[in-house]
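Is it possible to get an amino acid sequence alongside its tokenized fold?
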Amino acid sequence: MRLFLLLVFALSSSAFALSCSDTEGAFELELESLGIVYFQDVNSTNDGTLLTLFNGVCLIAKDGWQVESSEISVVFKDDNFFVRAEGIDAHVFDWKLQGARLEAFSDTLVLYDLNLQGQELSGSAGEARFDIPTGEISFVDVKAKTKALRVEGKSARLYQDTLVFSQAIATTCTCETDPIYTILADEASFSYETETLSLKRGQLIIGSLHFDLGDQELSQDTFADFSFPVTIEFSEDDLANNIRGTGLGLRIPNLKIDDKFSLELGLLGLDNDYDLRGVLLSKYNSETVKFVVGKNSFGPQADFSYTQALLPWLKANFSMLNRHWLEQDFSHDASLRLDAQTSLKTLGIANTSLDASLFAAASNQTPAGQASSNPDLNDSVSSARLGLATKLSYALADPFSGQWKSSLELKGTYYPGFESQQYGLIFNSQWHKNLSTGSSLQLGFDQTWTNSASPFTTKIDRLEPVSLLSASFTSKEKLEPDLTESFSFRTRYNFLTPTQGFSAFDDLGLSASLNWQLADWSVSPFVDAHFEGLINPNLSASSDAYLDTGLRLTYSDYTFGSKVRLDLYTNQLDSVELSSSLPFRLNDLELKPFIALDILPSLSSGELPRVTGHGLDMSIHTCCGILDLGYQQYNNKFATRFGIRFE
């Protein structure tokens, strides 16, 4: 990419780049607005309108670029000139530019079939056009190749420090063979100062598969943490929320068919502990129509929505929801809704908006467990729903007082099939304040008053009382050039304690760490604690009480760690963990296995250590960069990694 930017510099520099190899004793021809042509011999027509300059011909432009050719023709007409040269060689510092032809007018310079070579960069263009009065430069059929990136486009134009490609194709595969993958974009902007590539309507192409990237900015950092379109996942049973696990699976979440239509594919339950199941969903998304149809992780799904604007402030929406699986209580719903939204600025009330909706719906549900609020009902619940809702929202952003968002919403629903009504008043308020560049404070309050009278579960519309006060503080500051601190504190108080005998604090914890960087060494002591279990008389799965403390050491690519967990509820050691990640390389393949062992059983009873975590990272050196692949199972979390690094 820098090839073209250096060419631009050569065309816009205020100083001459280089002198011709030998101009001593040569004739000179000055062309206004262009520069000086040096030559040894000349042929001229009788009227002097055509000059053919040859033998040691060199053109040094006023703006600093230099072109050598075996012959240059100059045509004069009506106080203007036209310059033409075949087989040119241009010299810009250590860069060499070769072109099949040069054409120059008094206000425009055009170069054809360019090839540019440098120590680290190379590129080509079918045509480069330089507008002398404005300094604008545009290219046609552009190709650029750096050590880590290939980009090409139908055309390109330079804006200050950014080259903007249209119909761009990019890849990190710099080898001469077909790339493993390419990135297509309607427009791609490359900034040579930040070395970033910004995409508009981008797509990732792997073979015949297309994956939507949308609008995003790519750099070495984002490539190193790239979200690969094929994901590996692992999901365990969540007994507390009655959600079945799907085990180990492969999923393609967004297989692009066209701009509006995509597929989601997956194969789950690849391990023996879970049933094998497939995922196939077709998705369509436009301004007016949206649908998701097929089979997801748990069962059949068919959602549909159509939105039509009636007035600038009024929309009509027809939607259908069909989610026939246990976790969604086998819910089916169809509704017609009118939504109105307006700002109160016209009434002199700033930062305030008003939303209102009116709807009619028909719903059916077969809840699992607590089927409905009426124990006399059958398992299947069906009823029409008629309702309205209004919401008043206020937002204020002030550098001194911080950011404040609040809303007050009133909901009411009537169920003709049960002669019942549900009402709800919902209040939300959030305040956020940046105390410094690295620290912030956030407070929140959520309150819902409701009679919870819906015959359906929360998967359709049942409201539940809520009264939560939350607070958090985060800080990450550089104490010294090589020392960084990180601290966070969080708490949440539930005024409606769901179970008698439990404290209203359902979250109370803190995390703190220091990172000391010394040459190739990184030393990080840390503390992570949950205290809510200490103030709960009855400990449960939803209330933790533990303190983790330990040390992480990193030297080059070697990582070592130690962690001790103290059960604060019993005041006993729960685990003593050692972990390490030691890389080794086999030709172009680098492996970095990870293992974490709890050695407390060995220390207390002489038993073998217990494996608490494992993983493997692979780095494959290819012409597309260094491909990083890996997984890690640790702290009851399964994570995968895919990225591309550049050497």
Remarks:
- Residues 1-19, 370-377 have pLDDT under 50 and may be disordered.
- The radius of gyration is 34 Å.
